[in-house]
């Protein structure tokens, strides 16, 4: 099986992303991580473009242990000399020369003829070859270049001694079948092409950079140029992690090997994201936070039964600790039960059904359900199930700046009948408690009232804990709900129920309206 080499250009083409500016230490950190990831070639910068790039490329060339380090250079002798100064101490000095070959670039940007482009390329390759052990030459905008001209110029630079020819899709214009055909054509028709490495370098203007890179590999490319997280000029470059994992997962199809140590992928992506300030979208392939997350019940059930039903990549392959079953409004009972067991509970089926129902109600109101939420629902169900003489059925509270808070409550009473009552209070919680006290029909003293949010965020669950005393007895009650007043009512009712459960003989008489 042939091997495809990874040429990472995060520090050169990636840094061409508008607004991006990495300092020397940041570039060195990224380079070292790319080395750990096992990329074959690191393009560390464009040494002749400015002093900072020169120093950074030089520093990286000295520091990196395994990867080859290269730098970009125009076909200008002084650029080649500067690049040599930056790279001469590296293990395997390699230069990356480039010149545009498409008609539009030659005519309007370079103001040259095709003959001049060939001549300057040949001259630059020969000059570079006197210094560097590996010379790479790129035909910028190759995918919009006439294939006849590409054949001609490639033949000449091969004769001049080039080692690698890169055929970039500089403006992200090509399509997978077109680029595959281009590589196949040039491999078959350029004299000496079999003795050099052909490389692809795709941009993402039409969202096809990765697909085009993979198609180039199918067409015969032995090197792919790409960036971490796909960062780069305009819409970016082909993303390294997507190409690498696609080649690995579909090795059966592409029939190529690679040197990358894939478990370093996630760490590399996170480092680049952190240092560049580019947030990786949740749905980004391989490294997005949702790449291994499932929320819908049918998928969660499938993954629990056999992960390959919905996962073609194992999280560990790319250095992600584990997949995630996110509980939400679309989740089903299998995933819910799995979470409950994970939290250390093993409730009987009936109880689980009840809590699942409460969970679904909560999930309809709350965006993110945390472990603490589930825990609170389970604990609430336990105390509810302990003693249920009174059951809160509905609660309505009118409150406003100019009216007296009034609560209207419907409850199931100890004899099973439904009752309704209303009362006012100086605040809304007091209105709720006055109403409940009336319904219970006995003076119940509220000794303490505490409220806290169970999980973070605006839509967190509220947990209320009350201490009450009744007839020489005291009790604690807990209530959890999305709404503070509802949680307060549940806590109060729970406290009363617990007193009743402990002293059945002294049950307060059910009151009014029953
Ligand atoms: C497809 C790519 O990604 S190519 C790499 C692009 N990256 C960058 O440009 C980042 C670094 N660039 C820079 O710092 C600057 O552009 C420099 C230092 C390289 C050049 O700066 P300046 O001398 O001010 O020129 P400027 O950038 O305005 O124009 C580019 C010049 O290079 C010429 N040029 C373009 N490509 C090449 C090439 N491969 N070889 C030789 N000359 C070239 C242009 O025709 C133009 O020449 P002109 O001044 O005679 O019209
Ligand atoms: C210099 C070349 C390789 C390039 O970055 C491009 O064509 O996009």
Largest β sheet strand count, sense and barrel closure: 8 strands, parallel, barrel
Count of DSSP-assigned helices: 17
How does the overall form come out from the CA principal axes? Answer: elongated
CATH architecture of the largest domain: Alpha-Beta Barrel
> What ions, cofactors and ligands are bound?
acetyl coenzyme *A, 3-methyl-2-oxobutanoic acid
Strand order of the largest sheet: 2-3-4-5-6-7-8-9
User: How many runs of DSSP E, i.e. beta strands?
Assistant: 18
What is the first-to-last residue Cα distance?
82 Å
CATH class term of the largest domain = Alpha Beta
Q: Could you name the CATH topology of the largest domain?
A: TIM Barrel
Low-confidence stretches: 505-514
Percentage beta strand: 15-25%
Provide an overview of this structure.
The chain is an alpha/beta fold. The protein has 3 domains: 2-276, TIM Barrel (Alpha-Beta Barrel); 293-383, no CATH class; 388-506, 2-Layer Sandwich (Double Stranded RNA Binding Domain). It is 41% helix and 20% strand. The protein has an 8-stranded parallel barrel with strand order 2-3-4-5-6-7-8-9, surrounded by 8 helices. A 3-stranded antiparallel β-sheet has the order 13-14-15. A 3-stranded antiparallel β-sheet has the order 16-17-18. Helix 2 (51-63) packs parallel to helix 3. The protein is elongated. Mean pLDDT is 93; it is low at 505-514. The protein binds acetyl coenzyme *A and 3-methyl-2-oxobutanoic acid. Residues 13, 72, 98, 138, 140, 166, 168, 170, 201, 203 line the site of 3-methyl-2-oxobutanoic acid. Acetyl coenzyme *A binds at residues 13, 16, 46, 49-50, 74-76, 98-99, 109-110, 140, 170. Residues 391-514 are annotated as: Regulatory domain. Its cofactor is Mn(2+). Mn(2+) binds at residues 13, 201, 203, 237. Pathway: Amino-acid biosynthesis; L-leucine biosynthesis; L-leucine from 3-methyl-2-oxobutanoate: step 1/4.
